[in-house]
Design a protein that fits this description.
Shape: elongated
Distance between the termini: 20 Å
Strand content: under 5%
Radius of gyration: 31 Å
Strand order of the largest sheet: 1-2
Number of helices: 13
Number of strands: 2
Helix content: 55-70%
């Protein structure tokens, strides 16, 4: 046993200097920081463009607002190609190029803005081609050249979103990642249960037409699931760039939904038509602005909030409800499979959490009864041994046993502890 009177001063608190055999302390060498003036010239140019980028965003935001007002005051029969087509394309192309410029920085983390900007540029070029194909009141064919550029947005957006998540989150445990997967699968199951049957009905026509029309909701469903999962993972952190990106992607998904169901009662109304017109330029503007926001400075003394489990819990209950409803009424097989996957991942998450809790409890119990420096038992361990030994010592039915206790007092041990322990 070791006396732990000095346990309040832990060795980990004194790691700024280390003593060698001669007793002299060795100071830690801190690498010199590069002078701001010698930063890469190209990188400083991109950073210096930030005020001009936000001026451009202000002008584009005013243009989107003016376009929205124009859509609201006009009748549905009034269609101006120069405004509904070319001005909207100019807004989207400008926002896409600004996002690409942010990705030209040579600092780490430039891949995500570059991939996101290329994805936005692909979508904007799709609007350019759809405007050209619609000149003279023509109806664009499905699939068309515009669909190629539209669908090129999704893989680039997936890559950029995952990279931004990794940058914002750092290293996460498996239960944290599974929270996002549960929320994403649950959201996908809910969307599939309510909308997938109508999507299949709306995606009629030839095989190529049906495949093209189905590619948009499937891509949107996967992207929305990724955004919802990321929002769950970031619920304990204040990340304005991520929430602005999530808002832009959500607007994009809602615009695609309004466009796909444009023949239905809700989206064929004035509100659905107006929202369909404004959603895409507003979405591209929000996504482009998100990469120019400065990341929040982390406070090392501030405790990080733990990510909540409300959204994953709601997703798991919704998946269970979908499976139960599937017994009494017809639900598409996609929703049933997504609901089953949600519950399977939720069960895996609970299993891992229970295992991690058991390991953590055992580790904390070991740390409470042993000395960290020597690994010997401390006073708590001694009291535990004595209480266990004398708990049934007076019982004549128990086997007799002996206990030896050796107390060692080391003279001048404090000097040894001060020299090698801290």
């Amino acid at each position: 046993m070791q006396d732990d009177t000095e346990d309040e001063i832990r060795p980990s608190h004194f790691r700024y200097a280390r003593r060698d055999e001669s007793g002299k302390s060795k100071k830690a060498v801190v690498p010199a920081q590069p002078h701001p003036g010698v930063a890469p010239e190209f990188s400083s140019r991109v950073q210096n463009l930030s005020p001009f980028a936000w001026i451009a965003f202000s002008v584009l935001g005013a243009m989107v607002l003016g376009y929205m007002i124009s859509v609201l005051v006009r009748t549905p029969a009034q269609h101006w190609t120069w405004l509904d087509g070319w001005v909207v394309c100019a807004i989207e192309l400008t926002a896409s190029i600004i996002c690409i410029i942010r990705g030209l920085d040579k600092n780490p983390g430039r891949v995500a803005p570059l991939a996101l900007g290329l994805g936005l540029l692909s979508w904007s070029l799709g609007d350019v081609f759809i405007t050209i194909e619609s000149l003279g009141g023509k109806t664009p064919a499905v699939p068309s050249t515009a669909d190629v550029f539209y669908l090129g947005f999704y893989p680039l957006a997936y890559v950029a979103t995952v990279l931004l998540l990794r940058t914002a989150l750092g290293r996460l445990s498996r239960p944290n990642w599974l929270d996002g997967v549960v929320a994403g699968f649950g959201a996908a199951a809910i969307c599939a249960a309510f909308a997938f049957h109508s999507i299949l009905h709306a995606a009629g026509g030839s095989v190529a037409t049906a495949a093209t029309n189905l590619a948009y909701p499937i891509g949107d469903l996967l992207l929305l699931s990724l955004v919802i999962g990321g929002t769950v993972l970031l619920s304990g952190r204040t990340t304005l760039p991520w929430f602005l990106l999530a808002a832009g992607i959500t607007l994009n998904v809602m615009g695609d939904t309004a466009n796909l169901f444009s023949s239905s009662t809700v989206f064929a109304s004035r509100i659905g038509t107006d929202f369909n017109a404004v959603a895409w330029p507003a979405s591209i503007l929000c996504i482009s602005m998100s990469v120019w926001l400065k990341p929040r400075t982390l406070d090392p003394l501030r405790a990080q909030r733990v990510a909540g489990v409300a959204l994953p819990s709601v997703a798991a209950f919704a998946a269970l409800a979908i499976l139960l409803i599937g017994y009494v009424r017809t639900i598409t097989w996609v929703a049933l499979w997504l609901a089953a996957a949600t519950l399977l991942v939720a069960g895996l998450r609970l299993t891992l959490s229970a295992r991690d809790l058991r390991i953590l409890t055992e580790e904390r119990h070991r740390q409470a009864q042993t000395d960290e420096l020597t690994g010997l038992g401390n006073r708590r361990y001694l009291f535990h041994v004595l209480e266990t030994f004398f708990s049934d010592y007076a019982n004549p039915w128990t086997n007799s046993r002996n206990l030896a206790f050796l107390f060692i007092d080391l003279n001048r041990f404090k000097e040894i502890n001060d020299s090698f322990g801290h």
